[in-house]
Design a protein that fits this description.
The complex is a heterodimer of chains A (about 260) and B (about 260). By secondary structure, chain A is an alpha/beta fold. Chain A contains nine helices and nine strands. The mean pLDDT of chain A is about 90. In chain B, helix 2 packs parallel to helix 7, helix 3 packs antiparallel against helix 7 and helix 8 runs parallel beside helix 12. The model of chain B has no long low-confidence stretch (mean pLDDT about 85). Classes of the chains: A alpha/beta (about 260), B mainly alpha (about 260). Chain B: Keywords: Membrane, Transmembrane, Transmembrane helix.
């Protein structure tokens, strides 16, 4: 469902070093990244801040064009076929809403129905289903700017799934959520993957997400893949009895050293 | 594309209509403030009989035609120059994950309905000018053509200006120099300016095709600079070329888009 082959992305950073002098530096946000995610998988994508997680997500969704390598998502090259891909993929950014700030949630959803050309009947039943599972009923008529973070995140997730995409990509979907909201989001994602077979890739700093949701974990550091395997494999990299926090800390610091 | 555009516009107007008083006042305010432009021209004519060789109704015609183009372009696509803000705030990412051209999305984001006030003002001036001019009906066809070409020219310049903002997020003002500047420039007959400037806005930034060259045809006047007669019919070609340049600039800007951190 998702294939990356030798993908790299560089950024040119200009730093002012004198009154007129500028230093140009090439930063490799992602280098020579290759992995595959099969249909129906639930993959956690881990990495310290600045490791290249978001850059990867943005390349998978077609927001950023890779500087090298090849990407296929749902059979399409994201940067070349971005608008076609948009119909086959759902995207959630935890840090930032993709909804319209001043519009009530309900209007946002109607707008999305038209943008994605979803049939009215299909939309109604899908929306009713999502409203029930994500408990959106209480705030459907509030403008997005008035929603709490937990409500907004559930609204964002619903918005990403209204067109029933086979792939869902989430960038830190549980960031800043309280334990109850977190549990609600996790339950929903698990059900989505189990019942509808949606392929899910999520980035997170919350290791609880990984433990409770992901069968497979990928760890990126300094722009390349440092670990790829099951949660059990991940645990096996550290001495017996270590908590998952300790396991991951070991991996992060080992890579940095 | 058009369907999505209309859909988004309706949604934004509905959102703005939740504050009807604000919407009405802003529209009326826009009508009045832009009316001051015309008042300035009227004051000039109270002292002189002609401006660059043109009478008051002729100047009103040129002003109204350019004003219509500018105001309609501003109403329909003017928000494109907010690209830099969207890039900085990271909201442009959200537009890229939708199955709709980000150009359309950004053009209608918070659709500024009040800009209709400016359209109304320009239309009024154009109508008054035409009422005093007795343009033969065989030449009237050029008026809608020039307004449409003008919309394309202004929109294209806006687009080029915002394409620069993909890499230089604060470059919005560069585009304004040509759009708002161009809007102001074409309010007067170009014959009041120096010959070099007129050549520049004819052959480099084709602002002369917004109202000047086709306007000379409608008014049936000789070109004060002696430029060839056929230039008067070139507005559609100039608009098309500029639109292609703008489309290329936008595409290349989009490929260079760097997004924000996180």
């Amino acid at each position: 469902m998702i294939e990356l082959d030798g993908v790299g992305r560089t950024f040119t950073v200009r730093a002012r070093t004198g009154r007129l002098r500028r230093d140009t530096r090439v930063v490799h946000a992602v280098r020579d990244l290759s992995f595959e995610v099969a249909a129906g998988e639930f993959v956690g994508y881990l990495g310290p801040n600045g490791a290249g997680k978001s850059t990867t997500i943005k390349m998978l969704t077609g927001i950023l064009t890779p500087t090298s390598g090849r990407i296929q998502v749902a059979g399409l090259d994201p940067s070349r076929r971005r608008t076609t891909l948009a119909r086959r993929i759902g995207v959630v950014f935890g840090q930032r809403t993709t909804l319209w700030w001043d519009l009530p949630l309900r209007d946002s959803f109607t707008l999305i129905r038209h943008l994605y050309k979803v049939d009215q009947k299909v939309h109604q039943s899908r929306l009713a289903e999502l409203c029930e599972v994500l408990e959106l009923g209480g705030f459907l008529d509030k403008p997005v700017r008035q929603l709490s973070l937990g409500q907004r995140m559930r609204g964002d997730i619903a918005a990403a799934l209204l067109h029933d995409p086979p792939v869902l990509v989430l960038d830190e979907p549980t960031i800043g959520l309280d334990v109850v909201s977190k549990a609600a989001v996790r339950d929903f994602l698990r059900g989505l993957n189990a019942e509808r077979g949606t392929t899910v890739l999520l980035t997170t700093h919350d290791l609880g997400d990984i433990e409770r949701l992901c069968r497979r974990v990928m760890l990126i550091d300094h722009g390349s893949l440092a670990f790829d395997g099951t949660v059990e494999d991940l645990r096996a990299t550290a001495p017996e009895g270590a908590s998952i926090e300790e396991v991951v800390t070991r991996l992060y610091t080992r890579q940095a050293g | 594309m058009t369907r999505v555009y209309v859909l988004l516009v309706v949604t934004w107007i509905r959102a703005a209509a939740q504050y009807p008083v604000s919407m009405t006042l802003l529209t009326a305010g826009s009508f009045l403030v832009t009316g001051l432009d015309m008042a300035a021209i009227a004051v000039i004519f109270s002292h002189v009989g002609s401006l660059g060789g043109f009478t008051l109704p002729e100047v009103m015609f040129l002003y109204g035609a350019s004003g219509m183009s500018f105001a309609l372009a501003d109403l329909l696509f003017g928000n494109v120059d907010r690209l830099g803000q969207h890039v900085k705030a990271g909201t442009f990412d959200a537009m890229l994950i939708r199955p709709v051209s980000p150009f359309v999305q950004i053009a209608v984001e918070r659709f500024s309905f009040q800009r209709l006030g400016r359209v109304a003002q320009a239309a009024t001036v154009l109508a008054i000018g035409l009422a005093h001019l007795h343009v033969p009906w065989q030449r009237l066809w050029m008026i809608p053509v020039m307004v449409v070409c003008g919309i394309v020219v202004f929109t294209a310049i806006w687009t080029i200006g915002s394409s620069i903002q993909f890499t230089l997020t604060d470059a919005g003002e560069v585009g304004h120099a040509f759009t708002y500047g161009g809007g102001q420039l074409t309010q007067y007959p170009l014959s009041v300016y120096g010959a070099d400037l007129v050549r520049a806005v004819t052959f480099i930034v084709p602002l002369a095709f917004v109202n000047w060259q086709p306007g000379l045809y409608v008014l049936d006047r000789p070109d004060p600079l002696g430029l060839p007669y056929w230039l008067r019919f070139l507005a559609p070609a100039a608009a098309l070329v500029l639109a292609c340049v703008a489309a290329l600039a936008w595409r290349s800007g989009l490929r260079r888009y760097r997004s924000t951190g996180s």
